[in-house]
Each structure stands twice: as structure tokens, then as C-alpha cells.
Design goal:
flat, 3-stranded antiparallel β-sheet, about 30% helix, alpha+beta, single chain, about 130 residues
């Protein structure tokens, strides 16, 4: 078995194992690093699509909730709701965007984390119309 690694555009690392059987080469792209990178790339694309939809709608509201995960770490779930007016019928859309890890559950910490997350997503706090 021969181990090789290559890089392609976008920085996605491809690690594959090449097996030679009957003069045939079989490539397997099943390594855990590849799977994690692929999942991260897909998540980024989906998140950017959601953010572009929110930008089209202009105004949105946020829903946040603090929970403790299985490892007893506190996290905020960030959900955004907006009105989709791009179709003939008006639809209310709601999307989970991400978990935000927090150490302390004070209002100031919640506010800071949400503001940081919104600025990372390039969403303006001035466009929030509800919570």
C-alpha cells in the first residue's frame, strides 16, 4: 500500500490510499480529516447562502437560547428568523446558524457573543427588528 497526500484549490487536503491489485489503482477518500474538511466546506457554503437570503430580506430577528451540552459546557444557539418576500407568497423562514461557546451566562456576555457572531456573518445589528 502506498500513502500519498496532495493539495487542491481551496486548501482542501486530500489524503488517499492507493492500492495496487491486478494492475489497477483504487483511491479511497474516506479519511477522517477529509470528511471533517468536507463538512466544514459544505457548512460554510450553506451558511453563506443563508446570510445572503437574510441580506435580501434586510430585516431579521434573532432567537438565542443558552443550554449546557453533554460535556457540561455552556453554549448559545443562534437562530435567525426573517420574512422571505422573494416568492409570490410571503414565507417566514427560520434558520439555526451556529452554537456560540460561553463561559459565563451574564447578559453582557450574551450580548458580546451575539454581536461578535453577527459581525462575523456581516449582518448589521441595526437591521434587527425583534428578539
Amino acid at each position: 500500500m502506498q500513502d500519498e497526500s496532495h493539495r487542491i484549490k481551496g486548501g482542501l487536503a486530500i489524503f488517499f490510499f492507493c492500492t495496487l491489485q491486478l494492475n489497477e489503482i483504487h483511491y479511497h477518500y474516506l479519511g477522517h480529516k477529509i470528511q471533517n474538511e468536507f463538512i466544514q466546506m459544505l457548512a460554510g457554503e450553506i451558511k453563506s447562502d443563508i446570510v445572503s437570503r437574510i441580506d435580501e430580506a434586510k430585516y431579521f430577528l434573532i432567537i438565542i437560547d443558552c443550554t449546557t451540552d453533554i460535556s457540561y459546557e455552556k453554549q448559545i444557539s443562534l437562530i435567525i428568523r426573517y420574512v422571505d418576500v422573494t416568492t409570490s407568497t410571503i414565507n417566514i423562514q427560520e434558520f439555526f446558524l451556529e452554537f456560540l461557546k460561553v463561559d459565563d451566562t451574564s447578559e453582557l456576555r450574551f450580548f458580546t457573543e451575539v454581536i461578535n457572531a453577527l459581525s462575523t456573518l456581516h449582518l448589521s445589528i441595526e437591521d434587527i427588528r425583534g428578539q
